[in-house]
Design a protein that fits this description.
repressor; mainly alpha
Length: 195
């Protein structure tokens, strides 16, 4: 008889990964602490050791996971802004199940730090009113991804599906969605340049 493998230790990262799998595959409303415990093969109460505020802390952690992106500064503020927007779109599209949290939760922790970093990079690159620009670009990305996910039919998938939604291609979305996103981003950057 083969030796029994020791259980993988429970960690915050494992909890978030399992929660993302459930939310992306079945929708956020199906993500319960009991279902999460079952997926992790632990009692639901064990999760509270890593997330003492329970479901509230889990929702905050999921929102932070998809909004705490990083991008290297470019040669101009436009290139830097474009890199941030593309990175944000990719992170949000990877986990459509928690898009609602990204839309409604106030940025905290690493997500708030990422927004400060983006603002500083744009200001250092010469963009006036960088904080206002970051808010506008963030709203654009969130809205664009929400429309893209809605048009994909992801929300209409049966609840029983255990397969997470994945973007149509590894490089991004469909060619039409990519073109729409870039066209809108060009318009946003052009508008910010005239302020």
């Amino acid at each position: 008889m083969p030796a029994k493998r020791p259980p993988i230790p429970l960690s915050r990262e494992r909890i978030i990964e399992a929660a993302l799998h459930i939310a992306d595959g079945q929708g956020l409303r199906r993500l319960t602490m009991r279902r999460l415990g079952d997926a992790l093969q632990v009692e639901a109460m064990a999760i509270y050791h890593h997330l003492p505020r329970g479901k509230d802390a889990l929702m905050d952690a999921l929102a932070e996971h998809v909004t705490a992106v990083h991008a290297e500064p470019g040669d101009s503020w436009q290139e830097t802004a474009r890199a941030w927007c593309r990175a944000s779109r990719a992170a949000l599209r990877e986990h459509p199940g928690v898009l609602a949290l990204a839309l409604t939760k106030q940025p905290k922790g690493r997500a708030a730090a990422a927004l400060r970093e983006q603002t500083e990079q744009l200001a250092e690159a010469g963009l006036a009113d960088a904080a206002e620009a970051v808010r506008a670009l963030r709203a654009y990305v969130l809205g664009a991804v929400a429309v893209e996910v809605q048009q994909s039919g992801w929300a209409d998938a049966p609840d029983e599906s255990d397969e997470p939604w994945r973007p149509p291609s590894q490089g991004g979305g469909s060619p039409a969605a990519d073109a729409d996103f870039e066209r809108g981003l060009d318009a946003m950057l052009a508008g910010l340049a005239t302020r």
